[in-house]
Amino acid sequence: MKIWLDGKLVEQEEAKTSVFDHGTLYGDGIFEGIRFYNKRVFRLEDHMDRLYNCAHYLLLDIPYTQEELSNAVCETVAASGLNDGYIRLVVTRGVGNLGLNPFNCKRSCVFIIADKISLYDPDVYENGLALITSSVRRNRPDTVCPQVKSLNYLNNILAKMEAVRQGAAEALMLNDLGNVAECTGDNIFIVKDGTVFTPPVTDGCLDGITRRVVLEICRELQIPAQEKTMNRFTITCADECFLTGTAAECVPVTKLDGYQLGSGKIGPVTARILARFQELAQTTGTSC
Ligand code: PMP
User: Fold this and answer.
1) 0.90 exceeded by the pTM?
2) What architecture is the 124-283 domain classified under in CATH?
3) Which of 11, 26, 158, 196 is positioned for an S-S bond with 225, CB 3.0–4.6 A?
4) Which family does it belong to (predicted)?
5) What's the 171 CA to ligand 1 centre distance in angstroms?
6) Which residues are catalytic?
């Protein structure tokens, strides 16, 4: 497999970064997870905008223009020889000394991996996932803001472990007020009386690209949709619930902490949204 590392494609075995990289020492860096379908990169510009905004917030210099880095993504996809897959684009602070100060790091390190994607079992898209509510709260916006897609995922990893150890696929994460934020790697939506609801970004979720696409699809299909603060009661009493993310697309949720949600199967609104999402994924995107 070829990896794009700091400006060139190299063999996987040669794709090495330093143990003095602050990405490794401190989780000081950012990333994007992107999908490509039929060699076309889905919503590349949105992903790149989010990456550069996160870099701006962290005063992290990316030594390439957005156009250069978008071309690098395409180059990596072309070199993978795959038609469909998942791209991981990572920017770390780069090599510094053992101190915390990021301003001692001379140049950030950028790498891109394009690989096959492992998907949920097809059964999940019929019968839905089970969630538990995690005891670990999503970061408050005045800590590492959840809008920053940083390499610091330990909070979400703690929540994911809690889910896996209880036999659930995903964990619902609440914010410090006890309202719903998101899941460990996906945004959350519900459907109630024909309206689609999702928490606002300010309740502590990532501004997910798939979340944005789903809100666009709702407008297009004239399904009423709005952002709304929710708690566990709102989710428990939903007619339908689903998660969105680059890897998962739109995946139904039919259990929360042992409560059955809706009919216990994928709901009609979720199914319509998922079908349209898959159509868009297969027919739009940046050609490589
Ligand atoms: N929330 C979190 C915490 C995530 O890591 C992700 C990405 N896997 C998402 C939501 C979904 O975002 P996107 O649709 O941009 O993949």
Assistant:
1) yes
2) Alpha-Beta Barrel (3.20)
3) 196
4) Belongs to the class-IV pyridoxal-phosphate-dependent aminotransferase family.
5) 13
6) 149
